[in-house]
Amino acid sequence: MTLQTRTLGSGPSALDVSALGLGCMGMSEFYGTTDEAEGVETIRRAIDLGVTFLDTADMYGPFVNEQLVGRAIAGRREQVQLATKFGNERAADGTRLGINGRPEYVRSACDASLQRLGVDHLDLYYQHRVDQNVPIEETVGAMAELVEAGKVRHLGLSEASAQTIRRAHATYPVTALQTEYSLFTRHLEDEIAPTMVELGIGLVPYSPLGRGLLTGAITETPAEGDSRSTAYFPRFQGDALETNLRLVDAVRALAEDKGCTPGQLALAWVLAQQDVLGLGVAPIPGTKRVRYLEENAAAAEVVLTAEDLAALEQAVPKGAVAGERYGDMSSIDA
């Protein structure tokens, strides 16, 4: 298998990445048990497969996910496009300290991430969440200083509104927006995506498998210890889960006809949105196991026809998913 590349951003801010990336968060926290050795093995196998766009953040763990990624890419730095994030501030014991976009914090967070990753630069550095108490121009201005210092190559935002994206891009060119996007989550199509097309910004969808729902492997609320079992993720609870599983059943039926898994079909749909939306799209499905990584990577070979896309639209109409994507949406810029 030869995984193609895709271009995020435009002009001098353009960044070529693998068409499918790898979200590394679950290797350290949130989705049940973790195994550091298996996480390292998964990242190394990803690089072998051409899945070279790696995504982490300082708050995952906290801090230990960056260290894990750093160990996995040791000796292979030039083979990967490395992205991390700052702004969801946590203490070493995991306590959440809030969203921080202050310029002095931007600088110190970047230095700490570079040290944990064991690298001298980041290919893409995101503001993880928009700080409503700090003008975006100040935050992005500090991020731009990191580019000038050679510590960062490209800038990104995560979960930013169209207005914030426009203001940020006027301060310094933004290469990519990372936001949740899948068959189950399509909020960005109305206002955010057209703004990105206008400004030449690429899209990095996280949770392109609906936090695992679209794989078909989840049939009930996850066990205690998995963050999806909590009220923070309403789509996995009660009646909402029942409604959403019926939608997954419809995706599963189409996948069987296509000769692929439901997850592969869902990822192929996200990949196909590059042509639909008219901007660079490189999803970052997360996994902590080699076998699921290999399954996800094979989705790049699933070609969807216009009829396939229409059938998926009918199976999962926009807005059909039950429940908000987060129980608390206050940190999402709107």
From TrEMBL:
Domain NADP-dependent oxidoreductase: 20-315
Keywords: NADP, Oxidoreductase
SUPFAM superfamilies, A to Z: NAD(P)-linked oxidoreductase
Domain of life: Eukaryota
InterPro entries given in the database record: Aldo-Keto_reductase, NAD(P)_OxRdtase_dom_sf, NADP_OxRdtase_dom
Coiled-coil ranges (or none): none
Gene Ontology MF terms: oxidoreductase activity
Listed CDD domains: AKR_AKR13A_13D (cd19076)
Example of a GO cellular component annotation carried by this entry: cytoplasm
Membrane-spanning intervals of the chain: none
Protein name: NADP-dependent oxidoreductase domain-containing protein
Annotated organism of origin: Rhynchospora breviuscula
